[in-house]
Amino acid sequence: MKRILVIDDERIIRVSCERALIPEGYGVRSVSTGEEGLALIEKEPFDLILLDIKMPDMDGIEALKRIKERWPEMKVIMITGYGAVETAVKSLRLGAFNYIEKPFSPDTLLTAIKEALEVE
């Protein structure tokens, strides 16, 4: 079973991701802050991270930098309601695999995840 970590300060996004992914056979954990996410990655293995860009404690760009420094092979898909092209480009340059904008459909989410997990 592939394990996915959702890091997003919006509860509705975390719940929506869980509802879309668990029936598809993914193991899903979710947290509301970048700090919680980093702490959980230290303790548990994940195959992919869904990471919100705009969060109060630590933005997703900073969390992405820390994840990639420590786990360079980790697949990360950035999610945001603030669909600025500059932010997308910056996250991709920093090692994010992909970038999706809120609101996204379950199909969009599943397609992005499948594409990321197929690449070795």
What keyword list fits this structure?
globular, single chain, 5 strands, 120 residues, Rossmann fold
Strand order of the largest sheet: 2-1-3-4-5
Tally of discrete structural domains: 1
Low confidence ranges: none
- Specify the CATH class: Alpha Beta
Mean pLDDT: 94
Q: What is the CATH homology-level superfamily? A: Response regulator
Q: Classify the fold: give the CATH topology.
A: Rossmann fold
The dominant shape is globular
What does this structure look like?
It is a single chain. This protein is of the alpha/beta class and 120 residues long. It has one domain: 3-Layer(aba) Sandwich (Rossmann fold). Helix content is 45%, strand content 21%. The chain is globular. The mean pLDDT is 94.
State the gist of this model:
The protein has 120 residues and is of the alpha/beta class.
Layout of helices and strands, plus pairs?
Elements: E1 3-7, H1 11-21, E2 27-31, H2 34-43, E3 48-52, H3 60-70, E4 75-80, H4 85-93, E5 98-101, H5 106-118
Parallel strand pairs: 1-2, 1-3, 3-4, 4-5
Helix pairs in contact: 2-3
